[in-house]
Amino acid sequence: MQRTNGIILGIGMGLCIISCEQKGKTEQQEKSVDRLENFVDSVETAVNREANHNWTVLDNRYNKLVSNVEASYDDSKEKAREKYEDLEERYEEAKVEARNKTAKMQEDAERHMSNVESWWERNTARAQQGTRNTMDDIEEGAKDSWEWLEKNTDKLGDDIRARYEKIKSDLEG
Fold it and tell me: What is the C-alpha separation between 142 and 145, in angstroms, rounded?
């Protein structure tokens, strides 16, 4: 019997046994699953920091990593499924969390913007008469909303950001 590159050949006995050595394959499997896990971890971390992401790009990367995991298991995709089922669930949960955070952010932004716009409408005539309105003049409820909008400007949707910037520009004269 002779062993060559993980294949055992029985020569001269009328027997030929081919056996694949699993050490290299197992390492490739582990690496592909590790890459997928690292990606899911980074998506979860990113969603915790900021909910707005390009999910098309993230989904494409995720699907490629899943394909790599499946390919590393050749025809035993069931084994691959067992390995990354938890990762798939975590990834989908991160997407749902991001959607929920984005929706909440939009609701909060609309509420704060409406509050500031309401204050602005009540006080516009005074501003147009030459009274310079400053942050000190803003009523307490509107001031909290204004501060929230200031703090979250980079996270606002285009519509709310434009409305905010218009009032800010008018306030600055």
Answer: 5
**Which of 144, 130, 135, 129 has the alpha carbon at shortest distance from 167?**
135
Number of domains forming the structure of the chain: 2
Domain boundary among 67, 85, 102: 102
DSSP 63-130: HHHHHHHHHHTTT-HHHHHHHHHHHHHHHHHHHHHHHHHHHHHHHHHHHHHHHHHHHHHHHHHHHHTT
pLDDT of residue 156: 81
Looking at the fold, whether 119 and 159 belong to one and the same domain comes out as yes
Is 0.70 topped by the overall pTM? Answer: no
When the pLDDT of each residue in the chain is averaged and rounded to a whole number, the result is 74
Interval 96-107: pLDDT, tens: 998 898 888 889
Q: What is the percent of the chain with per-residue pLDDT over 70, rounded to a whole number? A: 69
Residue at a domain's end among 102, 122, 150: 102
- Residue 9 counted as domain residue: no
Beta strands 7-9 and 2-4: pairing type?
antiparallel
